[in-house]
Specification:
about 260 residues; Vcp-like ATPase, Chain A, domain 2; 2 domains; 4-stranded antiparallel sheet; 6 helices; about 30% strand
Length: about 260
Amino acid sequence: MIKDKDLVFLYKDENRNFLVKVGIGQFHTDLGYIELKDIIGKEFGEGITTNLGEVFYILKPYLYEKVMKIKRQTQILYPKDIGLILLNANIFPGAKVIECGSGSGALTTVLANFVRPTGKVYSYEKNINFLENAKKNVERYGLAEYVEFKLKEVIDKFDEKEVDFVMIDIGSPWELISAAYDALKGGARLATICPTFEQLTKTVFALEEKGFTNIESSEVLVRKILVRRGKTRPQQRMPSHTGWIVFASKIIKPI
């Protein structure tokens, strides 16, 4: 049963779908408005009618929509990239994770979801406006207790040691390879995203020089399909190149 202040996903069609917090007031759309208090007591999967008689379905919010509907002040990591990161990183309940570059909090949200209930994400951001926005996005999704935001520009080291995963999402990731190496457990994974070939090359060479192995670089492309009777075809628009994702594992150098 849906309660006051719960987050719900109101779905009409591909273009009319919204993440909404239940409570006092009205939610307005081009198909009329919904009294938010009328959602209280309903079950997920039920419909609710606007004042103009249009039905929206009340669905349970899922991570993809949470990521895509965060308030943005920066470019975000798309779900297509985040999915690959989750599978290549060692993320589990109780994991300690460093994220350098909070951005708008898209990846922060997903990492927090998977390290709970006993893990922690340490998210570093040097821009206070970006940090405050990311913090609000994480709070909106009820994940604030699993994230420690740090207003800090990392130069040569992170505060944490023996962490399970480090994600570097800044313009010059090669500058923090040594800091990441020192923070990681032996055998643990690092990831970063590089929008250009120049950034990618410089980062991979820095990883090799520092003492990382199992270095992989890849790009993820996802294309949706428009399924129509007699005219099914791929969508013409797609989020194609967002960046090359680089993974590497820490090895402990022999003395």
